[in-house]
TrEMBL record:
Source species taxonomy: Bacteria, Pseudomonadati, Bacteroidota, Cytophagia, Cytophagales
Molecular function GO terms recorded: uracil phosphoribosyltransferase activity
Species in which this protein is naturally found: Indibacter alkaliphilus (strain CCUG 57479 / KCTC 22604 / LW1)
EC number: 2.4.2.9
Name recorded for this polypeptide: Pyrimidine regulatory protein PyrR
Keywords annotated in UniProt: Glycosyltransferase, Transferase
Amino acid sequence: MADKEMKLKIFTANMSFGDEKVVDIPLKWSHVLKRIKVFGDTVYFLCENTERYLNERYLLILDLKTKESKEIDLKNTVESPISDFEILDDRILLLSYVQNRLIAQVKEMATGKVYTVEDVFQPGMVVQEVFGDELTGVFNLLINFRTKDRSKSFLMSSINKEGVLLRNHLFENESKNRENIDMIISNEGPLKFIAGTVGMTNKVGYNGFYGGYLADGSDPFNNIVEINDLDGFFAFEKDGGEKSRKSWEKSRNPSLKGALAAREIIKNDHGYLLYSDHFLPVGNSFYIKDGVYDRNYYRLNPMKNLSIGRKGGMDDSFIDTDTGRTVKVELGDPKIYFSFISSHVVQFDNNGNVLWDYAVPLPKKSTFVPLSYGQIFSGNKDHFIYEFEGKLFYSLISEGDFQEINQEVKILNPQKGDKVLSLRNSDLEVKALNNGSFLLTGRQQIRYVKEDGQAVDENNFFFQELKVTDL
């Protein structure tokens, strides 16, 4: 009897939404997509059997030009769930956790040979980000962990294509009662720019940002700017932020009452832009430190993978930074939810100096899964867009000054003329593209009158390009 098989449907189109195609790719029965990565015209899908005790997983590779696919078997690797992977030339870097310890393996796709990195990673070390550097031909792992005195540190490990650990670069904040909570790295350019948030350990609160280059003789962690020194952080408040700034100045240990989650670094015409979300987490205090309060939750929680989580799915857990263990979270648990306040942007120049900052006020949207609130495209000006209750809202910012703020964007209506009786948009997703526009996807529930006078209902999936010049 032949094995059962499912079909994975993939919609492809060029940047002008021409040459549209739907590609059917065979997917093994009872398998789900755990990770998806795109490199040029090639898409890599990490597939895993839902029956985890079977330890069945493979890499599905799709060539977008030829529409051909192939499978790479992962049976001869560590028998533990793969948390992440990366591709560099013909090698795959696979990351797993065994007894709370990180295991890194490099597999040759052509020969199947596997190289295991020497046992150098300590229990409690968690990979926050992994990327391959084509210029140097090495894999880089950004790892966070806590030291014996409970302070948080970051480690950058570089591994060659034969699984040899080349170097470790340790990042530590030596300021008393202060630690680096978030750290993000830009992969553009020969020198890596890093930025993130800092906080007070004695109050478990955020109070500033840092930014600078990852290079010998450079210490970005000493390049700290406190929130109260940023003109735009509280500026959206009714009194222009005056009350918040005075309260900050009076406090002996000033810090935010909410969480400040650094989302991404964008290289633009002015230098490097750091986008963060400010929100209030409400609920169980267990999640304060290394759960939803830092990037470990957003980067490693499978709920961020839209193919698995956000709409309810197979895995709703995150990896605890202290132990490396998977911690289960019940979706919809009323003890754990989040209310957004603002999306904040700080613009660094190419030397890590702050040029300006601003905050986009957000509706009091509550969610059980705190994904990034909006999407931002940045060149000479910044274009920020977000969805709220089935509607889109757009802001245009020039050098820290708002030219437009939270203006509603009309969503494409179906081509049904004036015979539409009702229209409802749902499951909206917005993604910033690298061509200066945004991609909007979602579903439209339509009720309209046909030519014969009969009312019918349709539920359609749609794509729409939102060009910044037309918003």
